[in-house]
Amino acid sequence: MKLFIVTGLPGTGKTKYCEGQMTYGKLTYDMDAIADAMDFEKKSGLARVVAMRMLETFLVNCKKEKADEVYVIRTSPSIEEEHMFAKYKPEYIELNQIWTRRDFNDDDWNRIILKHELYIRRIKPKIITEERW
Asked: What 8-state DSSP symbol labels residue 6?
């Protein structure tokens, strides 16, 4: 099983990119969407923890069922998530062209940017700047 971690700021087209990769034997886990669905107000870190625990089970079963490729959508993986992914020797793909502006207040946006910059420095993912997916 080949694992791809698709990252990027909100609005970069992570979901569209993964949709374009899908063929038989390939699966996608949108960790951001799953966590958001659990916590509509996005105020609890608990939803992210639960989504990560579900992801661990998902990856184990993908490997067991011999999925060819698995794509995980995540804005900026945490250090704990990176350790979990390391078992699968993932390829990190960073999409860095913002196509759709999301509504965030300045404090939230600055927090997202800072967390993402720290992730980029740690992982140094393959950066893709292309036309819209």
From this structure: E
